[in-house]
């Protein structure tokens, strides 16, 4: 019997479309219905500690507030001692937890700082590590024109800090067979961002590091999760107004903590894109148009941001001259 090629192609097309639709339905189920691992598994309300880097502002500060609310004691690490002290006093008074702080500049990568942190954590039961601290290019800049200092700072803050902090907490987590490591990623690691080349590459590193580490730690009781993040309203993103796609830190962090172990829009092992708008955008990038299209979109966006940033600098310089 002759095979009807048109019918065969139609059948393949139908199966392909059904596969895509099922994938989208899974994402919707994950972000709107499915529950994540309860944080009590990692010691919430039972004396365990959460360590948060970049804890004095934005997403890091919100992680501190929500993890305190869930009953974790906190070790907050960031650059500005006065901000850390204010947050510590507020959370201690509000939630009756213990809060320790350590002020350090991650860009310096000072071994003495990490040694002091190791000493502080030695007697603490670390249940959660949030690798949140990060820095970016001042404005989108071609790699050939970027300063050596900016490049070095991004590598030290976005890559080396995550490696060092993870290495500090892992031995005791593996020893107790329990722990949670959250690595805050970016869509710039999913789709290359021209003119943010070092930042983009650093976030891609964090994604692959999380996948490799997650596989290494399977069966140990330690959960590793790479959180893929689009924009969130913060000083780092320089976005001030929330939209459906760009949330405030509070709902964003809430989605992360409610969806531990749930992939949401992420298609990679040990990855999660839990916030609804981000999850659907992640699914679209993985399933529509192809990666070349999305990189070109990023190129156009970053060029436009650079043009506007340079015009703003020119206006500010002219205003100073006047």
Automatic annotation (TrEMBL):
Pathway: Lipid metabolism; fatty acid biosynthesis. GO terms for biological process: fatty acid elongation; sphingolipid biosynthetic process; very long-chain fatty acid biosynthetic process. InterPro entries: 3_ketoreductase_fungal, NAD(P)-bd_dom_sf, Sc_DH/Rdtase_CS, SDR_fam. The active site is at residue 199. Gene3D superfamilies: NAD(P)-binding Rossmann-like Domain. It comes from the Eukaryota. It is found in: Endoplasmic reticulum membrane. Its EC number is 1.1.1.330. Substrate binds at residue 186. It catalyses: a very-long-chain (3R)-3-hydroxyacyl-CoA + NADP(+) = a very-long-chain 3-oxoacyl-CoA + NADPH + H(+). One of its GO terms (molecular function) is ketoreductase activity. One of its GO terms (cellular component) is endoplasmic reticulum membrane. The keyword NAD does not apply. The chain crosses the membrane at residues 7-29. Keywords: Endoplasmic reticulum, Fatty acid biosynthesis, Fatty acid metabolism, Lipid biosynthesis, Lipid metabolism, Membrane, NADP, Oxidoreductase, Transmembrane, Transmembrane helix. The keyword Cell inner membrane does not apply. It is a single-pass membrane protein. Belongs to the short-chain dehydrogenases/reductases (SDR) family. Component of the microsomal membrane bound fatty acid elongation system, which produces the 26-carbon very long-chain fatty acids (VLCFA) from palmitate. Catalyzes the reduction of the 3-ketoacyl-CoA intermediate that is formed in each cycle of fatty acid elongation. VLCFAs serve as precursors for ceramide and sphingolipids. This is Very-long-chain 3-oxoacyl-CoA reductase. It comes from Bifiguratus adelaidae.
